[in-house]
Amino acid sequence: MKFSMKKVTVLLADGFEEIEGLTVVDVLRRAGISLTTASIMKREQVTGAHQIQVKADCLMEETDFSDTKMVVLPGGLGGMQNLEAHESVRELLRQFAREQRYIGAICAAPTILGRMGLLEGKRAVCYPSMEDGLVGAEVCYEGVVADGTIITGRGMGVSIDFALRLVEALRDETLADEIAEQIVYQK
Q1: 128-136: long-range contacts, CB 8 A cutoff, minimum separation 24
Q2: Beta-carbon neighbour count of residue 30 at 10 Å?
Q3: CB 62 within 8 A of CB 39
Q4: Among 21, 60, 77, 78, which has the highest number of CB atoms less than 10 A from its own CB?
Q5: For residue 144, what is the enclosing H or E element?
Q6: What is the pLDDT of residues 41-80, one digit of tens each?
Q7: 8-state DSSP, 167
Q8: So which residues are the catalytic ones?
Q9: What's the maximum distance between 2 C-alpha atoms anywhere in the chain?
């Protein structure tokens, strides 16, 4: 199978929810989508929320985002806090929103977008009990919600749905369905 490549960057920070980050990596790479993991920690080794060590492909400060079509923020409370505290991450999110490029965020991470004012008038979801962080959004309770170029997911349990929705956005629903079938995923 050969597909046109679309560049995606998954930002990794200490405390990220491993399944949310790595499911996106796995599913998008199966779809033939060019994907890079970038650590915001000034080191390639990132420690997930459950102490799983992951080596990112590169550091954020070494990443050229000029041809990146989508940036993805995994959740996990600690990971979300590290992402939100990082000025370059916030700057990048503002740029992507301004340029109408895709932003994917799951679990606690959509609250970063809400507190930055990037969800104003958009439908969005996040981890249950964190909805107050979806400032300006129409809060939804579905597993995954796409509104324009913002795609949000509620948590770890919808990681595959979230990743497949990203494939749909970057390519199409047919490919997402093919990937779902290949991994024996039943919606």
Answers
A1: 128/154, 128/155, 133/108, 134/110
A2: 16
A3: no
A4: 21
A5: strand 144-147
A6: 999 999 999 999 999 999 999 999 999 999 999 999 999 9
A7: H
A8: 107
A9: 43
DSSP-derived secondary structure for 52-95: -EEE-SEEGGG---TTEEEEEE---HHHHHHHHH-HHHHHHHHH
Single-letter amino acid code for the residue at 157: G
Q: Can you name the residues that pair with 50 across neighbouring β-strands?
A: none
The three-state secondary structure class of 155 is: coil
How far is 110 from 74, CA to CA, in rounded Å? 9
Reading the block at residue 109, the tokens are 């991470």
Q: What are phi and psi of 46, to 5 degrees?
A: -120, 140
186 SS3 class:
coil
Written as six digits, the tokens of 169 are 């956005």
Contact 110, 151 (CB under 8 A): no
Residues 1-24 pLDDT 10s: 333 446 999 999 999 999 999 999
